[in-house]
Amino acid sequence: MNKKSILAVSLAVTLLAAGCKKKMDNPFFAQWGTPFEIPDFSKIKTEHYLPAFEEGMKQQLEEIDQIVNNPEAPTFENTIEAFEYSGELLNTVSGVFFNLSECENNEEMEKIAEEVTPKLSAHGDNIALNAKLFARIKAVYDQKETLGLNAEQSRLLEETYKGFVRGGANVPEAQQARFRELNEQIASLTLRFAQNVLKATNDYKLVLDEAPKGLTADQVNAAKEAADADEATKGKLVFTLQMPSWEPFMQNCEDRDLRHQMWEAYSTRCNGGKYDNTKIIDTLANLRLERANILGYPTHADYVLDDCLAKTPQAVYGCLMQIWEPALAKAKQERDDYQKMIKADAPGAKLEPWDWRYYSEKLRKEKYALEDDVVRPYFSLENVLAGAFGTATKLYGVTFKENAALPTYDKEARAYEVMDGGEVIGILYMDFFPRESKRSGAWMTEFRGQKMSREGKNVIPIIQVVCNFTKPTGDKPSLLNFDESETLFHEFGHALHGLLSKCRYPSLAGTNVPRDFVELPSQIMENWCRNPQVMKSYAKHYQTGEAIPDDLIAKIAAAQTYGQGFINTELLAASLLDMDYHSISAKQPIDPNAFEKEHLDKIGLIPEIISRYKSPYFQHIFTTGYDAGYYSYTWTAILDHDAFAAFVESGDLFNPELAKKFRHLLESGNTVDPMTLYRDFRGKEPSVEPLLRDRGLIAK
Q1: Measured distance CA(562)–CA(363) in Å, rounded
Q2: Distance between CA 52 and CA 28 in Å, rounded?
Q3: Are residues 674 and 610 in the same domain?
Q4: Can you list the residues of the chain whose pLDDT is less than 70?
Q5: What are phi and psi of 682, to 5 degrees?
Q6: Does 223 lie in the same domain as 250?
Q7: What is the pLDDT of residue 13?
Q8: Do 534 and 616 fall into the same domain?
Q9: Residue 208, SS3?
């Protein structure tokens, strides 16, 4: 061997050794070695993500090649199951990165997301548009009646085939390049939309020297703590656009000009300026339409809904409008009441959107003698959490044990072992308080979903619940208002859906159900939260331990239908606006401000109320996957009120027989048609009447 060859071999060996060491140093390339194989957050650094994504995509493509080049005839096992279990490393790194990017975000994470998002889009298309792979899947699908599959296998075959068709497997070759381009552009734009909203929300701070009249002592203390966290505002008061700061300010601040200022900052986010999202909306809506057309659908809404329970835009509009009309009528009554109040305070003044929460709160206090400062002490975070856990224990027999020794990604995140009959069936992370690195809102997600391994071993889920509640201040714990208490129960309901899953295949497990069914397990939990009998068991004064008195429960119960005109119209307006954006059937320039006004005027939304989310910060439909799907909160509200009515009608809110049936619904994921599961639980088709009655939109 000549000197040149020796040097080349030496260099190759050196590079190989360096590559091996780099892999060995990357925690994604080995077993975590932690309890329950929880991701070892302490070892994961930002530089580990991109190599892990690259290796994950490489491994999955190699697995796909093995399926495609298998000389044996396509079977359920060597094609459908083999595809189902492909991409394990990619799923692992995605589960960690994208969850942490929403609650532990920073500039490095943003740069990684910007780099990896188009690569993941291309990777997905490389699989979805693999003609040889689809040919094998179709070959199995075409003989499905003769394969002797069990129910879950049949469902997986059906969903896999449908997923490839919806992913573009039948797109003509001449259009595939454009189809790939559309997917990449859509993925990148949704990421940028979310980053803009986070930055715009964090950028704004209202800094004051003294507290405006009307704010409670707790709100003032929270504003002081927020100010003292930054040297530049030390000794002042800081109010932000985060809900725990913004909403109480809008409800209690007597200074109308300051309310107007906060309202403008909140409602004009990303509408022009540094973090403008208006052009992204125009582009996204048209790109989604073009992609739907390539797939053979007249609109993006038709494409999305074809895979949901609603099936058609017409069904969605029909559902929403039957609630819109009584809700709008009630909202107009509320407006007239508040208009009288503002005239008494400022003769000649007209009620504006920045007045609504203030006068709504003022009238609520007068009408029900329900002071926020009187309610909150009974709803400490710890008490509400105990109430949610206790409800699950009574219904399903599961218990929750905090384990501080488990790995966590942030000092504020708390880890729980979820037990059933002495066995750990899942891990639950709870992350409660706002951070600048965390997006606003509340959500449930998973670091790892439940599944059976290829060898038939149950793999327990690792579930995450993220909220943005008021932080503890001084010697006071985090005290929630009643809406926040319902939010905790809601997200915990999603968590139960993931934790109780008992499925073989990961793509069918837990919350992997149609979008307009996924909110049922979460929304039904709100019913237990607000039930007087249940409330008595968990709502206890954080100082004295005294159970919430009956008269306060009665006031809260009486106030349940208060303000429902506003609550329902702002929610339904957002749902209808979403449908309108995604029901366009021809490419067109879209000015979101003009589009929004035209479509909300069309349904008669009164100017004193805006859509729950104005278009430029409507993350549900332009970022988080609820495009042509925001209606699902109302669609499943019909189900959850009807389902809870079954417990009420039985005379036992924890009826063991009904709880067992509902647990089966939660355990089944998408292994059975969801409406079949619902009818098996309820024994009949759902009715809209319990929803209208509970929200005070029809007489009880």
Answers
A1: 10
A2: 6
A3: yes
A4: 1-24, 700
A5: -85, -30
A6: yes
A7: 46
A8: no
A9: strand
Same domain, 588 and 658: yes
SS3 411: coil
Strand, helix or coil for residue 463:
strand
- Domain total for the chain? 4
- Contacts with 563 (C-beta within 8 Å, 6 or more apart), sequence order: 334, 360, 364
pLDDT of residue 697: 84
Residue with the two structure tokens 């077993």: 31
Structure tokens at 568: 């329902």
Show the domain range for 586: 270-368+563-700
78 contacts 144 by C-beta, under 8 angstroms: no
Taking only the tens place, the pLDDT of each residue in 162-218 is 999 999 999 999 999 999 999 999 999 999 999 999 999 999 999 999 999 999 998
Give the pLDDT score at 17.
Answer: 45
Q: Which of 491, 519, 526, 608 is catalytic?
A: 491
Q: Is 351 left (phi over 0), alpha (psi -120 to 50) or beta?
A: beta
Q: CA of 303: how far to CAs of 161, 519, 663, in Å?
A: 16, 20, 31
pLDDT given for residue 24 in this prediction: 67
In a domain, 617, yes or no: yes
Domain boundary among 489, 515, 544: 544
pLDDT digits (tens, 9 = 90+) for 278-302: 999 999 999 999 999 999 999 999 9
Q: Is position 7 within any domain?
A: no
Known active-site residue 102: no
549 lies in some domain: no
Q: Is residue 140 part of a domain?
A: yes
420 and 485 share one domain: yes
Give, in order, the Cα–Cα distances in Å from 22 to each of 17, 18, 27.
Answer: 9, 6, 10
- Both 234 and 319 in one domain: the answer is no
pLDDT of residue 5: 53
pLDDT per residue as tens digits for the range 540-572:
999 999 999 999 999 988 888 899 999 999 999
Residue 629 region by backbone torsions, left for phi larger than 0, else alpha for psi between -120 and 50, else beta = alpha
> 607 by DSSP, 3-state: which?
coil
- For residue 570, what is the domain's CATH number? 1.10.1370.10
Q: 633 with 317: CB under 8 angstroms?
A: no
Q: Are residues 540 and 408 in the same domain?
A: yes
Q: Which of 469, 461, 464 is nearest to 384 (CA)?
A: 469
Whole-number pLDDT of residue 372: 81
CA angle 141-144-150, nearest 5°? 120
What is the DSSP secondary-structure string of 328-388? HHHHHHHHHHHHHHHHHHSTT----HHHHHHHHHHHHHHHH---HHHHGGG-BHHHHHHHH
569 & 634 share domain: yes
pLDDT the model gives residue 474: 82
**Bridge partner list, 415:** 429
